[in-house]
Amino acid sequence: MSLLISYLKLCWFKSDPTNLIPSRNFSRNTIIFYFISGIIVESLITDPADGTLEVSLRTFMAFSSVATLLLFHKNILIFQRVFTAIFVCENFIMTLAILCEVLDIVLIKMHYEYHEYVGIGLAVFLVSWYLAIVAYILRRFFKYNVSRSLTLAFSYFISTYGIPMLFMDI
Questions:
Q1: Sign of the C-alpha dihedral, residues 58, 64, 70, 75?
Q2: Distances (CA, A) of 91 to 39, 81, 130
Q3: Cα distance between residue 95 and residue 97, in whole Å
Q4: Which residues contact 6 (CB under 8 A, 6 or more apart)?
Q5: Which of 143, 17, 21, 148 is nearest to 89 (CA)?
Q6: Quick one: pLDDT at residue 62?
Q7: Nearest 5 degrees, angle CA 3-CA 23-CA 14?
Q8: Dist CA 4 CA 108 (whole Å)
Q9: pLDDT for 169
Q10: CB under 8 Å to 2, separation ≥6 — which residues?
Q11: Is 51 left (phi over 0), alpha (psi -120 to 50) or beta?
Q12: Measured between alpha carbons, how far apart are the two ends of the chain, in Å?
């Protein structure tokens, strides 16, 4: 539990991911949670089969992106540490996204006129927070400056969300 709390502190930029060493079991559970929460969110948006396929593609792209970055740095040995840090924070953001989906359903049922604006605002906030977290993790691991970290975080976001989404539209 203390390891999870240390990882969750990354979401508030209060922990150093380079000091965190996950167990294989912790990393595996992080991947499982990532997969299940992704399927839940995608299934609320589309049908479960398409959602499962998109989350599978997203997981593949996430691993590929981290591996490519680490191969570029010739430091593949920290693969588990980097992806676990990113995935734990992404799981936290995804949990908040699930709560936002539930809030949207409640607002629709209450016939709240501006529910779309609330949903868009929360989505922009969560994506921005997510990009900041990934940039923070990359900055800590690779000693990048802020602009390079944000650029790589945005590239990671595009490769893990944009490419699978484009593939699903084909």
A1: positive
A2: 12, 15, 10
A3: 5
A4: 15, 20
A5: 17
A6: 94
A7: 30
A8: 34
A9: 77
A10: none
A11: alpha
A12: 42
Cα–Cα distance list, 75 to 27, 68, 69, 91, 120 (Å): 18, 10, 9, 25, 38
Q: Is the pLDDT assigned to residue 165 strictly greater than 90?
A: no
Q: How far apart are CA 116 and CA 169, in angstroms?
A: 23
Other Cβ atoms less than 10 A from the Cβ of 13: the count is: 12
pTM > 0.85? yes
Q: Are 155 and 45 in contact (CB under 8 A)?
A: no
Tokens of 143: 């000693």
Q: Return the structure tokens found at 145.
A: 């400056």
Alpha-helical segments (H) within the chain: 2-8, 24-45, 48-72, 79-109, 115-142, 146-157, 163-169
Sequence length of the chain is: 170
Residue 50: pLDDT band with limits 50, 70, 90: confident
CB environment 72-95: b (16+ within 10 A), e (fewer): eeeeeebbbbbbbbbbbbbbbbbe
59's tokens? 């997981």
